[in-house]
Amino acid sequence: MRTPENSADLVAAEDVLLFANAAITATGQREFRSGALDQQLSLDFLHTYVRVNYRRLYAASLALDINDHNAARIVLGLLETAGEASAEERRTEGRLIAARLARLPPQRVYRLFGEVRRAGINNRRTRAIMRDWLAARPDLGHDAVKYRSGVKTAARHVHLRCPQGPEPLAEVGAFLFRPGKLPRYEHPLLDAWRRAHYEQGAVAELPFTVAEGFAARHGMKRETFLKRAAPRMTRLERLRTHAVTQRPDVDLAAMPLTRLALYVLALPFEQRAARRTELTGALRTAARRAAGRHAGSWGRVHAVLDDSFSSSGSGQKRRRPLAVALACHHLLEVLAAPGAYRGLWTSGRGDALLVRPWGPTPLGMRVLDALEPGPGGAAPDRLVIVSDGWDNAPAGLAGEVLRVWRARLDPGRRTAVVHVNPVYDADGFDVRRLAAGVPTAGIRDAEDLPALVEIARFAEGRTGSAELHAYLDRRVALFLGERDAEKETETETETGKGTMS
User: Fold this and answer.
1) Is 328:446 a contact under the CB 8 Å cutoff?
2) CA 119 to chain centre
3) Is the Cβ–Cβ distance between 372 and 406 less than 8 Å?
4) 48 φ, ψ to 5°?
5) Helix (H) or strand (E) holding 58
């Protein structure tokens, strides 16, 4: 019989896994079956519950593959409730926060700093964290142009000293707080911004998102502007405008796998078919890069991939579930041994490049097909199910098939079964599961699949809370170790470093 201590440990482990699934998948945006408000309320409760009851594990979640939305919420929650932590916890939290901020997109960090200011969090530790992040930016002048309001808010909050004189920081200070004071700037982007108000040729020198506004002000044609601005675009900006610019230097294979899958699904069927060789090659190259050292190590892999109508997502997350399934399809093909992969779509389609959200979700029938022995009469080593879990044709068949398979046909667990779910269920405070005995993990990007399969094994009930805590400790150590290694390689010539007043 379980002791109270063991029961408490199991509950804690289940709570942490539940929160990890939510932090990976949920973004507070509308999903196919729940509205944005439901998502936000559900996330609010989970963040408060886990932070209050398991603060150390809440902070350790920053070292996991959670999405940027929840990472920012965790940072804000830890800073806002610093008085509830011990001195040792604050030190560890500070290192985790600094490491996570270094990995977040700068626009997300500046937005977070704005929330910190509005919340009135102005203690010395918070200002030091913000100041150190600003000091580590490679070009604060670039940030001042591209994220002007964010840099201005952060500089005010940390009392960033902007001295007079020719120093780069002085120019940034004049640009932010004394616009028009200097007749020209030494920093090329700051001066390009000044000239772009009256000189059309300076528009193309600015970051793309800033240049768009000036282009509209000058009445530039969209096609002309995009061609001029292309050299300064980021990879994602090039991908978004590729249909207009048709630039040959857009390397689709260099894009992140899930982002590339979203791009492919946004194309009409005619373009997908006409560009089949290019798109399929890019997806496979991105999948090989994402698999890394895991390539070919998973043995025989069968997959059930959900392309039912609910995989269309929502207006805010358009086709996101289907894109995750498409990306997982190509990634699993690489993870499996050569020639040992079989992917089954719920619609029955055999052409992955032309999938579309359509029809019901007959997961049970596809799971039956996937569990059939492959060539040579061997059962798969792994069965991976990528679905939102709404098995409805008929309802509940997939869970029953898996239960009977595990109890009667495979009690020795020769086939490892895992369900990855790209959709957060706001009502259940978790991702929807197929059956109690099937390990389930939330997924946002297919690139995280190998790590998520490792997390999912804790949900199967075959490992204890001690193993889960040890796993989290390893992830934190690796996360902070990588951050320390990065700091050792930093040079002392970074621009934009400031001091506290």
Assistant:
1) yes
2) 25
3) no
4) -65, -45
5) helix 55-60
Tokens of 444: 């946002």
Give the number of other Cβ atoms within 10 Å of residue 38's Cβ: 17
For residue 418, the one-letter residue type is: V
Residues facing residue 351 across a β-bridge: none
Q: Looking up tokens 């600094």, which residue turns up?
A: 98
The one-letter amino acid at 463: T
Tokens of 432: 């929807």
CA distances 397 to 90, 155, 394, Å, are 48, 57, 6
Helix-helix angle 363-370:397-404, to 10 degrees? 30
CA angle 12, 18, 19 (to 5 degrees): 90
Amino acid identity for residue 306 in this structure:
D
Distance from C-alpha of 43 to C-alpha of 27, rounded to nearest angstrom: 9
Assigned token pair, 462: 């075959």
Sole residue written with tokens 């078919």: 273
The enclosing H or E element of 90 equals helix 87-103
Burial (CB count within 10 angstroms: exposed 0-12, middle 13-18, buried 19+), residue 301:
buried
Q: Write the CB contacts of 357 (distance below 8 Å, at least 6 apart in sequence).
A: 307, 308, 309, 310, 311, 312, 319, 322
Across the chain, which has 501 residues, the per-10-residue mean pLDDT values are 56 86 94 93 95 94 94 96 92 95 96 95 92 92 94 90 62 86 88 92 91 91 86 81 60 89 94 94 96 93 96 93 97 95 94 94 93 78 94 90 88 90 93 88 93 78 70 89 56 34 28
- The tally of CA atoms less than 13 A away on the side-chain side of residue 248 is 0
* 418 vs 228: CA distance, rounded Å: 48
- Which residue's entry shows tokens 């041994």? 337
The answer to whether residues 347 and 312 touch, using CB atoms and an 8 Å cutoff, is no
Q: Which of 389, 481, 473 is nearest to 435 (CA)?
A: 389
Helix (H, G, I), strand (E, B) or coil at 123: coil
d(CA 66, CA 16): 13
The pTM for the full model equals 0.87
SS (H, E, C) 63-89: HCCCCHHHHHHHHHHHHHCHHHCCHHH
Which three-class secondary structure state does DSSP give residue 290? helix
- How confident is the model at residue 319, as a pLDDT? 95
Report which residue type is found at 7. Answer: S
So what's the pLDDT on residue 11?
Answer: 77
Number of H helices, E strands in the chain: 23, 7
Nearest to 97 by CA among 119, 83, 80: 80
Identify any residues that bridge with 417 across adjacent strands, giving them in sequence order.
383
Judge whether 50 and 11 are in contact, CB under 8 Å: no
